Design the sequence.
């Protein structure tokens, strides 16, 4: 679906959800909205909508496009609604446990035996966040973090995958541990956003550094030139230049000061069957894990190498359990390292420097440490 | 004395910590205490957030929401370059007619959509404040207000101010008191002198982003370029002494040195699109249709003129501003049609602005005007349009003339789409739509199709001539603009021995105004007289009592215009020499 189609579909569905009645003309959509919504959207009770800028004047049709006033109002209204919701995940496929185990890399073919101990209903909380990075530009992302209040586990969910079916269930009251779950979610979000935020910060500070250097360079040399031209000249001029420099610096610092903020958009409570399973691995090792029907995520295993709790898993013949990442690393590290055949003569070495494998020598600094100082 | 850069910034090893919104606590407190709005509302909440996410300047968002703005690649590239590479600080130095205002509006809109600009200030010459407001409102849907009172600085987040007003107390302090997200300075060559109040005022305004708009960054000498760039990005051209040493070749400060290197430096701060081969507008052909008024029209014209001169130089010598303005209107209306002037004459014949004797004269003049059933100019217009055989835009300044012409043209079998300021937006759309369809005449007042794409027609008829040449230029600009690929015809109807004949003498014969690209005239007239508008100058000449005096004054003004045009041509050459390759490519 194109972006225009996505926008159109969203707007029409949102208006319908708000109680509007819609009728399509060739390129206009006629909308009749309830009174309460009319005030929020600042429109007459019946009005025309268009997604085509060239038709926006016709019948005083409201234009729907990024940045259009109507779309801003609609988004503001829609994001004030639907901020919490409860669903019950019912009637999962009969073999949902087997499917989840296969996806987790724990199929019988891998030598893993699984026995469901019991199935009970548990609750997950899904927190939606909007993360905003701002300096002199802005970058935003939408994140969904699932938290299991019963185990304290939290993990990021792909928002595109976060829509498995469920039946609305308004019997769910406020979860008693909502705030703790929120705190877990914020920690998961902090971790998952760290790299992006730090890259953003580094880029902003590099620009800031360039600007600050230029400003100091310009104003300080200007002051030198003024002093050079007239050593006994007025101090007022020098003070004025210094004042201008400081003002420009303040302006620049404000402009490039990076900020990262997150705001909670919505929360969903999900009641789902969860199976407690005993896994038996080659070599006789066993582990108790749980899998829920909503996310199909397996909880309760940790990697013998990195202690991570994210699958998929690679059980070893000796009973050790590794996550896929560690398993890949191990495979790479045991791969035979033959000297590559090459007609290229060995690179020349400078006296006192390291070998080709260790360019800085054994006491050499890491490449990162020896690189030109990039941060301010 | 330089501080090391490390001292000016936070330590490099610190992380950018995510700050959570305090409002999250409210949601946590309220959630699930009442039933939700349903799973659809929950899903739409997420979609609304995802649809409105901003991801840097990877793509432009504003285009689809603009109205009546044709998408040109050079404007899009300029916008992307300013946003991504110049980080919102740039001199937009396109040659005249390539749409600097659109580029600035587009950049502003991109920032506004992203929530990076909440307060914006546009500084322009006083004569352009209204035009900017209209463009920002009509094309970009940005609610700008023109500065009226001191309170506006606080209350209006999107403000347009004349730079001359803003720089003076008490406005100065108010303008500089709070930071702006974006400041746009139009006609930025007026900031060429760093010792001027203008320059120091703009330098003192705190801003995150700044756009300086000028087609001629260099007007006289190289200092001006340095001053302009230093306002935007001090140090980009080094210090003043080093700039002179390196980039000014001799004691003659008009002569640049190391030009390729200078252009390299300018590329960081300046975008200059040029009219290349692909962008050359088709030529204009100007046809002059001088008309001899009928005896009755002639008598009325002369009588009205005599009344205007008498009143203008009244014995009391204390003519109010309102009365003076009224006389100008009267003189302009009689230049349009007897129908335009008749009603004003009637209204003034009961106005307290004039004495009893004057009111009686006005009443008599109104009777004379009403007695004239046909205007000779209209007859000539009909004859011309019969011979044309294609669509045409006919402009008049006055609604009453428009009504008269509509009747005349329809009686002659033309299908007329009438367009004027009194129409509701939907009716205006319908008029443009009809002209695009089966109507052959677009009959319009000054409001005619501002921002509308009417390039499918190519003939503009000036049934009357506004005294403000920029208005004439705007009319022609409706069809002679980017997107026009056919030769454009401009037809001027004017009566001999009238103010309009003077206008033709000055604008057509002296400065060849009709050959200029839209926008150039403004730069020429800008150097003419700082205090008085061209309309004022015309009125002053026209109201001189002696014909010889009028001829002499007209000659003087003509000479001044010729000098202004020559100065403009020299300036163009100088800018071309220095800035020729500042932008990587010629618009295509």
Sequence:
């Amino acid at each position: 679906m194109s972006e225009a189609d996505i926008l159109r579909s969203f707007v029409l569905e949102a208006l319908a959800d708000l109680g509007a009645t819609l009728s399509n003309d060739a390129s206009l959509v006629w909308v009749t909205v309830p009174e309460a919504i009319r005030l929020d959207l600042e429109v007459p009770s019946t009005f025309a909508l268009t997604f085509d800028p060239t038709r926006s004047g016709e019948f005083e049709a409201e234009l729907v496009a990024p940045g259009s006033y109507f779309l801003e109002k609609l988004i503001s209204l829609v994001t004030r609604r639907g901020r919490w919701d409860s669903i019950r995940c019912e009637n999962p496929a009969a073999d949902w446990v087997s499917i989840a185990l296969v996806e987790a890399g724990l199929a019988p073919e891998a030598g893993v035996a699984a026995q469901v101990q019991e199935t009970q209903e548990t609750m997950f909380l899904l927190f939606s966040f909007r993360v905003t990075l701002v300096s002199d530009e802005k970058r935003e992302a939408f994140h969904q973090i699932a938290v299991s209040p019963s185990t304290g586990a939290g993990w990021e969910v792909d928002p595109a995958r976060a829509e498995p079916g469920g039946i609305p269930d308004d019997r769910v009251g406020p979860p008693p541990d909502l705030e703790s779950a929120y705190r877990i979610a914020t920690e998961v979000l902090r971790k998952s956003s760290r790299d992006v935020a730090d890259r953003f910060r580094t880029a902003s500070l590099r620009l800031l550094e360039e600007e600050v250097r230029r400003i100091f360079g310009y104003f300080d040399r200007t002051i030198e030139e003024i002093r050079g031209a007239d050593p006994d000249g007025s101090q007022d001029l020098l003070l004025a230049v210094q004042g201008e420099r400081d003002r420009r610096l303040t302006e620049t610092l404000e402009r490039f000061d990076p900020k990262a903020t997150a705001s909670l958009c919505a929360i969903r409570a999900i009641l789902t069957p969860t199976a407690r399973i005993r896994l038996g691995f080659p070599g006789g090792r066993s582990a108790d894990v749980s899998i829920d029907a909503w996310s199909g995520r397996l909880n309760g295993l940790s990697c013998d190498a990195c202690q991570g709790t994210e699958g998929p898993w690679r059980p070893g013949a000796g009973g050790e359990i590794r996550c896929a990442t560690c398993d890949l690393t191990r495979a790479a590290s045991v791969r035979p390292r033959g000297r590559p055949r090459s007609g290229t003569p060995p690179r020349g070495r400078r006296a006192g420097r390291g070998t080709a494998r260790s360019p800085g020598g054994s006491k050499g600094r890491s490449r990162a440490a020896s690189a030109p100082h990039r941060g301010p | 004395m330089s501080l090391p850069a490390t001292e000016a910034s936070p330590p490099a090893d610190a992380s950018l910590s995510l700050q959570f919104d305090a409002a999250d606590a409210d949601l946590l407190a309220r959630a699930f205490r009442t039933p939700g709005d349903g799973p659809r509302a929950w899903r739409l909440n997420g979609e609304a957030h995802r649809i409105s996410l901003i991801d840097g300047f990877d793509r432009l968002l504003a285009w689809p929401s603009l109205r009546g703005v044709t998408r040109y690649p050079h404007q899009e590239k300029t916008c992307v370059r300013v946003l991504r590479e110049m980080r919102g600080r740039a001199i937009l130095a396109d040659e005249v007619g390539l749409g600097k205002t659109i580029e600035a509006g587009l950049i502003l809109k991109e920032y506004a959509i992203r929530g990076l600009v909440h307060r914006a200030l546009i500084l322009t010459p006083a004569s352009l404040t209204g035009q900017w407001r209209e463009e920002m409102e009509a094309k970009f849907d940005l609610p700008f207000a023109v500065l009226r009172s001191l309170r506006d600085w606080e209350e209006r987040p999107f403000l347009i101010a004349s730079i001359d007003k803003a720089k003076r107390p008490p406005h100065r302090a108010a303008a500089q008191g709070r930071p702006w997200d974006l400041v746009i300075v139009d006609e930025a060559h007026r900031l060429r002198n760093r010792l001027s109040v203008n320059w120091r005022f703009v330098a003192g305004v705190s801003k995150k982003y700044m756009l300086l708009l000028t087609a001629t960054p260099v007007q006289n000498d190289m200092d001006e370029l340095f001053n302009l760039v230093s306002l935007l990005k001090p140090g980009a051209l080094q210090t003043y002494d080093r700039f002179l040493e390196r980039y000014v070749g001799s004691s003659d400060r008009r002569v640049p040195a190391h030009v390729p290197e200078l252009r390299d430096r300018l590329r960081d701060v300046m975008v200059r699109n040029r009219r290349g081969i692909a962008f050359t507008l088709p030529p204009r052909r100007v046809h002059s249709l001088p008309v001899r008024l009928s005896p009755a029209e002639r008598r009325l014209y002369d009588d009205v003129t005599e009344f205007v001169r008498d009143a203008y130089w009244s014995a009391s010598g204390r003519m109010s501003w309102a009365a003076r303005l009224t006389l100008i209107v009267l003189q302009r209306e009689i230049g349009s049609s007897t129908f335009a002037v008749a009603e004003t004459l009637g209204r003034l014949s009961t106005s307290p602005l004039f004495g009893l004797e004057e009111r009686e004269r006005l009443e008599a003049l109104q009777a004379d005007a009403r007695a004239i059933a046909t205007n000779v100019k209209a007859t000539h217009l009909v004859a011309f349009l019969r011979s044309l055989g294609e669509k045409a835009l006919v402009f008049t300044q006055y609604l009453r003339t428009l009504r008269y012409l509509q009747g005349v043209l329809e009686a002659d079998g033309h299908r007329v789409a009438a367009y004027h300021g009194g129409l509701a937006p939907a009716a205006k759309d319908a008029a443009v739509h009809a002209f695009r369809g089966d109507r052959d005449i677009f009959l319009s007042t000054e409001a005619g199709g501002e921002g509308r794409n009417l390039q499918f027609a190519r003939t503009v008829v000036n049934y009357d001539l506004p005294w403000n040449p920029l208005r004439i230029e705007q009319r022609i600009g409706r069809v002679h603009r980017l997107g026009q690929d056919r030769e454009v015809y401009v037809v001027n109807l004017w009566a001999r021995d009238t103010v309009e004949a003077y206008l033709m003498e000055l604008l057509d014969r002296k400065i060849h105004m009709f050959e200029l690209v839209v926008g150039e005239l403004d730069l020429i007239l800008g150097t003419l007289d700082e205090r008085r508008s061209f309309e004022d100058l015309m009125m002053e000449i026209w109201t001189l009592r002696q014909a010889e005096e009028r001829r002499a004054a007209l000659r003087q003004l003509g000479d001044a215009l010729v000098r202004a045009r020559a100065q403009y041509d020299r300036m163009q050459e100088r800018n071309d020499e220095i800035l020729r390759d500042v932008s990587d490519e010629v618009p295509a």
